[in-house]
Amino acid sequence: MPNLKATVKSVWSIQPGGLCVLVALVAIAVGLADVAAATPRAAERTESTRVSSGARGIVSPVDPEGLSGRVLCGYQGWFAAEGDGAGIGWRHWKRGKPSENQLTIDMLPDVSEIDPEDRFPLGIKDADGNPVEVFSSYLEATVRLHFQWMREYGIDGVFVQRFAEPLGSPREKAFHDTVLQHCRNAAKAEGRVYTVMYDLTGLEAGAVKNVLDDWRELRDTGVGTDKASLRIGGRPLVAIWGIGFAKDRDYSLEECRDLVTALRDDGCSLLLGVPTGWRAGNRDASPDPLLREIVASADAISPWTVGRYRTLDEVSDHANAAWAADLDWCQQRGVEYLPVIFPGFSWKNLKGGSLNQIPRLRGKFFQRQINEAIRLGSRSLYVAMFDECDEGTAIFKCAEPPRGLKDRFVGLEGLPSDHYLKITGAAQRRLQVKEKFRSK
Length: 440
Hints:
Elements: H1 4-14, H2 19-38, H3 40-52, E1 70-75, E2 108-109, E3 120-125, E4 131-134, H4 140-153, E5 157-163, H5 170-190, E6 193-199, H6 209-220, E7 231-232, E8 235-241, H7 253-265, E9 269-274, H8 290-296, E10 300-303, H9 312-333, E11 336-337, E12 340-341, H10 348-351, H11 364-375, E13 380-383, E14 398-399, H12 419-439
Parallel strand pairs: 1-5, 1-13, 5-6, 6-8, 8-9, 9-10, 10-11, 12-13
Antiparallel strand pairs: 2-14, 3-4, 7-8
Helix pairs in contact: 1-2, 2-3, 2-11, 2-12, 3-11, 3-12, 4-5, 9-11, 11-12
């Protein structure tokens, strides 16, 4: 157990005036959380109880430099609705016409804080005849609300997802350009940070180079240089997801290497999204040693883990078998490491199968991942995802399925809609305090 008396004494000595007691109490709380993290089951009980009644705080604008001490979320921003002004119809809520049989989401967003004129009927009704409503990422006020939640719950910011394949369509590109601009505006207004994460999924052979052209176009609009842009060593951070996966990829590792080299030559820092088995060249990863060469040239990596474990014990097994060795490999080479953590998983309406394939367990599944990552020495975390309703990994405010639809959507298990925002913010605070003590 950490020496809490010494910790309090140390904090007291460096803080002036009346803030001493407050800072000391924070140090005690973090010390106790670290003790709990060493025994994940206890931590899951105490943390889940604590965040259920935790108060939201106002957080000052965050420093855009570096990754350590941060929890960053993936932000899909891909939801569109008929009548939202984007002119592309429905995206990601359903296929074709909005009807119960065409739904592609397993979680319902909480739209109670969105203005009525910015909500869109999904085409289904509950048992009382009330229409189910959703939002559009194309509307700036909705994106601003999401970033407001990040500020209120103490989450530093997001990787704004930018799928490279749809950028070939002018209408699709215009939609994603608009959403990205909303994210930039919201990040600056709410004191959050952001960066672009290119997803290479679906690109044909020879098309990876198009990402470089798109990045340079974005850079000319101020992406990477505005005050909310994440950076490492003063260089704008660009994230590239989808390097080194063994299946369903037409593009090559050589293309990926050339893209990483070109972006670095352009003055960027790089975070790479890679498969779980990247280090050993097994499981979902290419066995080609070029993958490890590319990873070693990056500033940071984030191996994908969604669906790679399903139970609390499997989380701990994965942490000990994969995260620990990954961290050691990266530390030896000066590469930062962001484990991917997720609250649960479900894609019945999108892909079929049963509902709630990876249960959330009232937050215990998510909390176990946080505890294990911090126990092993991770200094930052990547949450998948902030707003992913399609695969049931969203941590933002979701709604309890109404009467008549409870068998179609994942429920809240009796928890408040903001439960996972609270857990995420608590993880952020643990990392931040550990970084402060690390620097002393």
